[in-house]
Amino acid sequence: xxxxxxxxxxxxxxxxxxxxxxxxxxxxxxxxxxxxxxxxxxxxxxxxxxxxxxxxxxxxxxxxxxxxxxxxxxxxxxxxxxxxxxxxxxxxxxxxxxxxxxxxxxxxxxxxxxxxxxxxxxxxxxxxxxxxxxxxxxxxxxxxxxxxxxxxxxxxxxxxxxxxxxxxxxxxxxxxxxxxxxxxxxxxxxxxxxxxxxxxxxxxxxxxxxxxxxxxxxxxxxxxxxxxxxxxxxxxxxxxxxxxxxxxxxxxxxxxxxxxxxxxxxxxxxxxxxxxxxxxxxxxxxxxxxxxxxxxxxxxxxxxxxxxxxxxxxxxxxxxxxxxxxxxxxxxxxxxxxxxxxxxxxxxxxxxxxxxxxxxxxxxxxxxxxxxxxxxxxxxxxxxxxxxxxxxxxxxxxxxxxxxxxxxxxxxxxxxxxxxxxxxxxxxxxxxxxxxxxxxxxxxxxxxxxxxxxxxxxxxxxxxxxxxxxxxxxxxxxxxx
Length: 481
Prior knowledge:
alpha+beta; 4-stranded antiparallel β-sheet; 10 helices; 23% strand; rod-shaped
């Protein structure tokens, strides 16, 4: 085998002749036999003189048969937002060019340089490529081998950015098929045919190639013909079947959102009167879920349909908002009951005043007579004490039990009075105080408490049922056998 490294020469015949002379001088300087290089030098001279690099080997008759092989050197990130992926490949092409037959003792090898413009190569291109780059370090990564019978091997190392159209309806429990398609730009099927190398693995991949968010399930390759207005063109295609790894989204989306939903359930266990605590808890969880959903959506393109993770996040937001809405209803009932509290208290005080007057009247008739001043003072103080006890949340029944006939006579005789302790109007009444302050049925407050008790069971149960249905509709993808 003889390797000839060509410097940048262009296709000027004079420069090629100069290269031939330099090679002859080099062969003489190293003491080699000049006849050993004669076939190679003659071939170069023919390329510079009569070879036409723009015309395919078989101008008439059978189409030129080109076989290809791909070696996947690296499989880089797959982007959902731009719907593309990156590859680094070795593209190998083989064909027979009768014009390149020579009598050399071995294979002639060119490894890059402008001398490549002197020979014909297939004009293959990647139909779904966004960007294609030839590796240039430390020099052009090209290989061109010519065997004595005219068989040619052309290999190049390329970095590709290829489009990959994805259906994200089941994201992130989805499978994607990303394609690589190569075909001839100028030659139709009557002039050039493309085939895969007749080997067990025409598409090879390095065993160390891994993807951070995907697992390569399988690689399929096939060949076909595409019909254009300019004719039918042969193409080769590779399909990379990818299965998304769910671990990242479980840790960053599903577990945090589930914890936020569970955190919103704590509000139904908090006292109804503790409005700041319950409102802050509900608003915080709603904002946290909205922020998380916005971040997840920013990782995807602006698609018009809902993905699987959108369904999950929206449902979590609805459940958190439902907990906040439940407290709005409960607090409305509590506030309504609280507003009626003063009116009911006045009516109770009026009834107690009437009963006290009737009781004093009976005592006077039985011989235990109190002065008018003492009677009025006792009524006034009893009323104030009754009102105070309602506001302080102490049962009026207790007051009545502690205000028997003998106790009242003792208070009147000794002139003892209780200090007048008024409750501030801004102080919050708890549900226990409201329930304890009257013997009557408090319909609105009872309804509020029943809603809270029902929500403690309903909200977790609804989320569990939704989770079961969700994971049944969107199962975790599995690898094909």
